[in-house]
Amino acid sequence: MTRPAAPALPADLAAWLDAHAESLDTDAADAADVVPRLGRAGLFRVGVAPELGGAGGTTVDAIEAIAAVARHSLASAFVFWGQRTFIEYLLQSTNAGLRARWLPALLAGEHAGATGLSNAMKFLSAIEPLQMRAAPLDAAQTRFALDGALPWITNLRREGFVVAAAFDRHDGAPPAIFALPHDAPGVARSDDLDLIALRGSNTAALTLDGAELDAGWLIDADARAFLVRARPAFLGLQCGMSIGLARRALEAVEESSPAVRAALADDAAALRHELDALTARLYAGVTSGAFVAAPAAQFELRIGLAAVVDAAAHLDVQAAGGRGYLRSHASRATPNDTARRSREAAFVPIVTPSLVQLKSQLAQQRRSEAA
Ligand SMILES: Cc1cc2nc3c(=O)[nH]c(=O)nc-3n(C[C@H](O)[C@H](O)[C@H](O)COP(=O)(O)OP(=O)(O)OC[C@H]3O[C@@H](n4cnc5c(N)ncnc54)[C@H](O)[C@@H]3O)c2cc1C
């Protein structure tokens, strides 16, 4: 499968992302602007059917759009991932009413969508229990009381958000996934977490204390089945961050002086080749739906892409030399993009599903196949 052409971002958005990439990484001053700007550029509509208000195209086009933003700013690409992944949940939900209510504002970037499903993904892999609980308030299960806490969620915009989370049920029913609006009584967002990078991503903890919602907020009554179906898009969209960051780091090597470029040419070409091959396999699996039944194949690709990001960021550092070790490029008083990309790259292995988790799951699978 050939790689789709990376969409060109509107020039004003690309310029804004470049001008604010450093501040989006180091502080929260511009955090409120990211979703509306990406929305105005039409990026949340990519890969969404026209009859639902989208621009058409496929999930692969949406991955490429996230990659295009990640070339400029990983904090923005991560916000994009949160928003687009929540949109994806609505697209895959059987709750047409919830979709109709929320899709227009989310596609336009007028409201933020977030995914708090790392806990659920870890639950699906038997790593940790669900940290949220839902108790039905009536026999017909039309209303639920919701409690619990999630320590990390990105794109919890202070101006308002809706977030997906999975809930354990103590009445024997399977765990369910709800959408939670920021303004339901009992829903509380913490202050921004004190991150070492990506600080403009509106990342905070969420606490629910007796929040009450009706069944109209259910994304799916069977979290396990839903997550298995949604995981290829969740993970594929997330890989867009790795693809874009690795491409930009390799471009930075290309932009270095002829002598540096020549010295690093073989390493850069090998990484470029590996990146393109992994990307093509990812897109083929997302397109065919093969990762629903064979998640391990996608896990291998996520691990491979993370290794490429790591190596490309190292090459970027080598190409920049001592200049890359200064806080800013003194002659131009511009921020040090190489250092920012190194900080951004440090995030890639830890976002769920983390490399530790995936390697452990693949090892488990190999053991059970051997037994
Ligand atoms: C900046 C930032 C933004 C985030 N945004 C979001 C978000 O929007 N939504 C969201 O849901 N989450 C988000 N997270 C959470 C993130 O995706 C991970 O869940 C979290 O960083 C991993 O948790 P931990 O390191 O605390 O894992 P721990 O539970 O402390 O585990 C450490 C590592 O070991 C692995 N591990 C633990 N136990 C096992 C086991 N039994 N078998 C195999 N592997 C195991 C874990 O996967 C992890 O890699 C964010 C995190 C960060 C840093």
Automatic annotation (TrEMBL):
Domain Acyl-CoA dehydrogenase/oxidase N-terminal: 19-110
Domain of life: Bacteria
Stored PANTHER family: ACYL-COA DEHYDROGENASE, ISOVALERYL-COA DEHYDROGENASE, MITOCHONDRIAL-RELATED
Protein name: Alkylation response protein AidB-like acyl-CoA dehydrogenase
Organism: Paraburkholderia tropica
Taxonomic placement: Bacteria, Pseudomonadati, Pseudomonadota, Betaproteobacteria, Burkholderiales
